[in-house]
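Look over this entry.
=====
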Amino acid sequence: MRRIAACAAAVALAVGFITVGSASAVGRPACGFTKTPDEPPARPVSMPRDPWLTKGKVKVRIKTSQGDLSVVLDRSKAPCTVHNFVHLADRGFYDRTDCHRLTAYPTLKVLQCGDPTGTSEGGPGYKFKDELPTDLKPAPNDPSGLRRVYERGFVAMANAGPDTNGSQFFLVQSDSSLKPNYTVFGTITAEGLGTLDKIAAGGIAGEDPLDGPPKVRAHLYRVQPC
């Protein structure tokens, strides 16, 4: 109980108000949680049911080897995705894992996490539907007009195509230009951005200086919803 109270206080400091646990049940969204037999879970974990909660914010304290990388998730933007993330975090799926990918392209600067195997191939053994953003700004200097700005501080789901969300997510370190094919479900706290900048500043390991594992190890000790 003390730990929950401490987390709630942290939310008040981070976002100026406390909404943890506040929500309204207005019918369960159909998330399309479906097992993926050809892609077994990287760690044993149950598949969530569709959520009742569709409003309210959830602070998630992510303790890493480089400092806290905490986020605030918004159910009103993506109730299925927030429910899934909290489900996995509550069951320790993300604990003791490494963020396996850092990018430094001019139009894509993100840190990708959520795969216990560290290979970009691991997931929870199921998939669910997209909850794609509709309010992103058009990306500047994009002749196609299809790309949008994923702003610094966004938390979004990685995927392998439409409706293939699982456990992997990415943290946007600098405004990035992408087609709006990735669910945005939260934002990084100010403290978390400092940690993300520290990891990004270390650069990328391997032969490709633009895409690969971060040189500064980003090990997730504990991912704890408040």
Q: What stands out?
A: The mean pLDDT is 90. Residues 2-23+55-225 form a domain with the Cyclophilin fold (CATH 2.40.100.10). Helices lie at 2-15, 79-90, 190-201. The radius of gyration is 17 Å.
